[in-house]
Amino acid sequence: MTVAPEHEFFITAAKAVDPRPAERLRLAVPDPLVPAVVRARAAVKRRRGGALALARREMGWLLGAVADDAEVEAVAQRYLVQDTYRSEARWHPGLICHQPVDGIEHLAAARAEGRGVVISFLHHGHYEGAVASVSAADRPIHVALSPDMCGPDAPGFLRQHVRAGVNGGTIGVNVAGGAGVLAGVLARGEVLAIATDVPGTMPADFLGQQRYGSSGAARLALGTRSLVVVMTAHRSPSGELRLSIGEPIEPTDFASPDDLVRHLLAAQEDAVRAWPEGYHHPTLRWGTAPRVAAD
Hints:
Layout: E1 10-11, H1 21-28, H2 34-48, H3 50-63, H4 69-89, H5 93-96, E2 101-102, H6 104-112, E3 117-121, H7 127-137, E4 142-145, H8 156-165, E5 171-174, H9 179-187, E6 191-195, E7 202-206, E8 209-213, H10 216-223, E9 227-235, E10 241-245, H11 257-266, H12 269-274
Parallel strand pairs: 2-10, 3-6, 3-9, 4-5, 4-6
Antiparallel strand pairs: 1-5, 7-8, 9-10
């Protein structure tokens, strides 16, 4: 069997799929007009009802153990607007790819150790713009990408998600290349951003409920002797976006990869609780309880 060379799984701005003609219309909307477009689209969604039902389901699932019905309803209303803004902002990288990064010195300190560094993040905030912002604030990093985002036949919004993410020199890594390609990035002392909220069977408490995630990123960090930093996303009451990077974490300080993942998730709770509507489709980010075989 022929194995593709590693570089074939790397996606840079030069290799990102160009937008189709119809998509160029969205790119042509001036950034200052995006809020007006969002208000108009959100109003249409409210009248149709389906989007609000989805928002209620997503936020009820996320906050059911920590918020009452009135708060869930208020957050769901904001989620509808935030999700509409997200779908427009990815077409306007200038709005999301230059977020201020608090704690960038922590990433620099981790790099200085001469080892790989895993940036642990959630699908919270404008995460495609977050990785681009970190690259712009320090120097280019890598980010793990799902295979369904990387091909020319990917939906337009996913292809634009990738184009936004590889701003600032960020290098996308198609995980279709396998753990070996990801490990190779870290073994060279590079920085690799990996989402921690990936469906799996590992139980972990998050916002008062048991979820089921994956410890794959933690195992990768341990296997490559890489440090880990947590990146959280924030939005001010006036709408300003910013990111925060925590101090380097030594994976070997934890008894198991699962314990490391639980620590990484706990470090995200305050940020998600403060901006719950910023969590993008949380029901898609977690697995379901493993089935128990019948006797």
